[in-house]
């Protein structure tokens, strides 16, 4: 069975669109690079952005939900890092953050992007924050633009939410 590739995406930002970027302060040497990648990518596409900081990755979903609920932003990009340690804390944090971000996006109807690195060690984080695997902050920004564009093709009747 042969599958055709999806069509290439022509990313377009509507003038006046504002994107929020919520950044965890924890692991700031990594999240700062992710944030810079997201801000630069959005600016290169003509989008406005605002950066908001929270203490750690666990707090990302709550702030993302609050920002999305204002109606002032077309998308929220969540950036953080959870590094595996000697205990299983990372599993609990990662699960809660992923579920929270998903729920925030579903409940608000605003695209909320998961730009949280879930890594085994610091080197893996560095590799994904401008290293050999690119900048996942930049990738999250591109995904945000694409999701906003795609979701505009399917406007919701707010009275049914």
Structure summarized in a few sentences:
By secondary structure, this protein is an alpha/beta fold. The protein has five helices and six strands; from the N terminus they run E-H-E-H-E-H-E-H-E-E-H.
Describe, in plain words, how this protein is organized in 3D.
- Helix content is 44%, strand content 22%.
- With 161 residues, it is α/β, with parallel strands linked by helices.
- The protein has a single domain, classed as Lumazine/riboflavin synthase (Rossmann fold).
- Strand 3, helix 3 (89-108) and strand 4 form a beta-alpha-beta unit.
- The mean pLDDT is 93.
How do the strands and helices of this protein lay out in sequence?
Layout: E1 18-24, H1 28-44, E2 48-54, H2 60-70, E3 75-83, H3 89-108, E4 112-119, H4 122-128, E5 129-131, E6 134-135, H5 136-151
Parallel strand pairs: 1-2, 1-3, 3-4
Antiparallel strand pairs: 5-6
Helix pairs in contact: 1-5, 2-3
């Amino acid at each position: 069975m042969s599958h055709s590739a999806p069509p290439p995406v022509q990313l377009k930002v509507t003038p006046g669109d504002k994107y929020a970027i919520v950044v965890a302060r924890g692991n700031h040497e990594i999240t700062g690079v992710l944030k810079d990648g997201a801000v630069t990518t959005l600016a290169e596409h003509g989008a406005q952005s605002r950066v908001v900081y929270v203490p750690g990755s666990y707090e990302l979903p709550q702030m993302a939900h609050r920002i999305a609920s204002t109606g002032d932003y077309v998308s929220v990009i969540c950036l953080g890092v959870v590094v595996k340690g000697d205990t299983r804390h990372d599993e609990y944090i990662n699960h809660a953050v992923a579920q929270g971000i998903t729920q925030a996006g579903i409940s608000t109807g605003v695209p909320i992007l998961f730009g949280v690195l879930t890594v085994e060690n610091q080197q893996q984080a560095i590799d994904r924050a401008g290293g050999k695997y690119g900048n996942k902050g930049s990738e999250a920004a591109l995904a945000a633009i694409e999701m906003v564009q795609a979701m505009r093709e399917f406007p919701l009747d707010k009275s049914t939410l």
